[in-house]
Design brief:
Blueprint: E1 2-3, E2 15-21, E3 24-39, H1 47-56, E4 60-70, H2 76-94, E5 101-108, H3 115-126, H4 133-142, E6 152-157, E7 160-167, E8 180-187, H5 191-204, E9 220-229, H6 233-253, E10 261-269, H7 272-284, H8 286-293, H9 300-308, E11 319-325, E12 331-338, E13 341-342, H10 347-354, E14 358-364, E15 370-377, H11 381-388
Parallel strand pairs: 4-5, 8-9, 10-14
Antiparallel strand pairs: 1-6, 2-3, 3-4, 3-9, 6-7, 7-8, 10-15, 11-12, 11-14, 12-13
Helix pairs in contact: 1-2, 2-3, 5-6, 7-9
Length: 392
Amino acid sequence: MQRIEGGICAVPGVRAAGVRQGKYGLALIAASGAAAGMFTTNRVRAAPLDVTAKHLAGGYLDGVIANSGCANAYTGPRGLEDARAMARLLAGFLATEEKKIGVASTGVIGRYMDLPLISQLFEQAKVRLRSDGEASQEAERAIMTTDTRVKEIAVEHEGMRVAGIVKGAGMIEPNVATMLCFLYTDADFPAEKLHECLADAVKDSFNMLTVDGDTSTNDTVLLTATGKAKGREADFREALRYVCMELARMMARDGEGASKYFETVVRGAQSVEDARLAAKAVAGSSLVKTAVYGADPNWGRIICAVGYSGAEMDPAKITLGLEGMSPDGRSLKVSLVEKGRIVDGALDQAKEIMKGDTITINIDLALGSAEARGFGCDLTHEYVNVNANYTT
């Protein structure tokens, strides 16, 4: 897997642009090809998702238009028409049909779109559509809300390219997470196959990510294939999964107010579903997250989370450990519980690991061969500050 520069514009046939005006932004991406998407599981679903899902029924997109600052969620019939109006803007410029445009929004729920502002931003953005690396980052910046950094990646693998940009820092919980993610590839696969590959990639990446336990109304992941490269499905799946996993890691590291990133690796589960349940429970536990923040090696909270996760487990068989880097850069690894028995004298080294900004929690259930990995971050005072003043 070779990482390359250029973001989504590293994929032949992709052009991008983005503009901002204060907290409001607009991103445009032009790329034609077979397309698939996945959306939030929240029953309160934003208007752009319904519009885009309907457009994806044709299995083909010519472009995406996405805004930040207003979620266009819980806005009724007016919200649907506003989302369609956004699609018409880009469709007219690209000389294509409205039904071949994807629409996405992020921002405050329960407020109507300012279409005059959207139109103004569109006029500024459309003349900037181009295929260079700065254009990819420009589009990413346009859709950022509480994000603090650009999150993008592009790879080349066995003659195919896969790339993506993503926004998301808060209201993040497994089931896609609060995010707008736009993925592109030059691989030549039909829409049905793209959806199958995307579902598998999302299952092990975005669906294993949590920041705060809230599932958004606007989660959108879109994948478009320009079809300019031939390759094996297995190689494409590998590249797509890698891209999605890396983007999930970037989102966890950029969680609202986060100061530390951690992964939960569960092995030895009876089933993959059990492994996922345990990994999600630990990554999502407020008690674990605050312990990570305080560098407190309170491993009992981890055992507790596994116990209520719903996964099959035997307290007498579980093995638990931590690994990471010390503040001075040394690689550290410590075992805290081995086959149900507490390891004496391990807390000092565990605390040193917890002081680092990247931590891996290793759990072996010793009941089977299935495994899964969860992505999370600590819970800090700054998270409260960010969300206590989100609309004010």
